[in-house]
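If I may wish for something, please sit down with the protein I am sending here and say whether tokens and residues agree:
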Amino acid sequence: MELWNLRYFVAVAEELHFGRAATRLHMSQPPLSRAVKRLEADVGALLLVRSPAGVTLTPAGEVLLDEARTLLDHADRVRSRVSAAAGAATLSVGILGDGTDPGVARLAAAYRRAHPGIDIRIRDTDLTDPTCGLRAGLVDVALTRAPFDETALTVRTLRSDPVGVVLRADDPLARRDRLRLAELRDRRWFQFPQGTDPLWQSYWNGGRPREGPVVRGVQECQQAVLWNGTVGVAPLGHDLPAELAVVPLTDMAPSRVVAAWNEGDANPLIRSFVETATAAYRH
């Protein structure tokens, strides 16, 4: 059995859907389906039951999923140890400046357990660069939020968060259960500096041009709301000062937490980081 076939099978078994697994693996469905059929031929057993609703695992598939995870984890550890022996045991990670996401803590703990010999160097960035220094060659992989220009990058979605509008706690709209973007059309929205990725700016402005103060970091965004009554947008579930409130937006697309790296970069440390991140953010 080839390791790449096992990785394909694990993706399908975890997603229970060929389409979602193909998206996760950045490939089309037909070769993924063929790879799983080859694996079934190799082991001599039916692993998956396919239906219009998705996929279910057979008893043989359940066993293989458990064994494949163990085998792939061991293979990743082997790569990491070989890289360490070769003196290439450093991975630089860019993280968007938002330390309140519990997924980051879970990822750090899981990666330390799996790769204790790897030296992780963190570059904390502000909101003006959603690639966290990736395009500038400052980091190997970015843990950030989409959307942004993905040209020449590989991007994997780890989680999608609903978002809300951040208001002063004494704002009349803060008492609402939910809001629509149209109800905020006359408000001032924070802006990023000129030259910031336009896809990124547009998302945090609700998809249309806005006017408002220029900010660079999360704290500046919060202060702009507090001092000027500026409208901010933030993922739901994040801690905010008591003076601020967040009201869910019903017509704004979720904010995607993603891992991003340079297209074609075959560094095995990046691959192991992304796989660990995928598992950490699933819980």
